[in-house]
Amino acid sequence: MDIALQEAIEVLKQGGLILYPTDTVWGIGCDATNYEAVKKVYKLKQRTDSKALICLVNNYGMLERHVDNVPTMAYTILDIAVKPTTIIYDHPAGVAENLIADDNTLAIRVIKNKFCEKLIRYLKKPLVSTSANISGQPTPKSFKEISEEILKGVDYVVNLQNEKSQSQLSTIIKLSNVGMVKIIRE
């Protein structure tokens, strides 16, 4: 395991925030099961907790542990998706309460980025992921565009600044257990 991975895991285990490259844009992350860590993310982003955050998992097994009933259609959508796709699921489980939306849903993405996949695998928990910006400000397209406020507000910056993120947000689809499908963001 490399140093960046080890240090990020230590910070996450202690309830800290990390800045890291994802399969979409640079993200602010924390342990998705830690209520206090999730509160710190909302505070740093200057965002109300009524606006939900995305949760990353590393495989279908972890997805199934954190959603009471994953609709079969979710697997089909994820298997055919050509870009990173986040699905909003009904009845999440085993995550911090302040991650769950008022309608008892949670946005989860099965990650396809090697660093994130390893990070989640070694942490053995899902990871919060939200764009590295203050709420309402433009999403940074590269590490260089991340504000000083965000850089100073996290406990650890993963040393992969040269890592190319895709500089695009994920597609978000709301998928209910009764078969309703709604595209929230393409």
From TrEMBL:
Question: What catalytic reaction does the record list?
Answer: L-threonine + hydrogencarbonate + ATP = L-threonylcarbamoyladenylate + diphosphate + H2O
Q: Name one GO cellular component term.
A: cytoplasm
Q: What top-level class of enzyme does the UniProt entry assign?
A: transferase
Q: Which keywords annotate this record?
A: ATP-binding, Cytoplasm, Nucleotide-binding, Nucleotidyltransferase, Transferase, tRNA processing
Q: Name one GO molecular function term.
A: L-threonylcarbamoyladenylate synthase
What EC numbers are recorded for this enzyme?
2.7.7.87
BP GO annotations: regulation of translational fidelity; tRNA processing
Question: Which Pfam families does the UniProt record give?
Answer: Sua5_yciO_yrdC
Q: Which SUPFAM superfamilies match?
A: YrdC/RibB
Presence of the UniProt keyword tRNA processing in the record: yes
Alphabetized PANTHER family for the sequence? SUA5, THREONYLCARBAMOYL-AMP SYNTHASE
Q: Please give the name of this protein.
A: L-threonylcarbamoyladenylate synthase
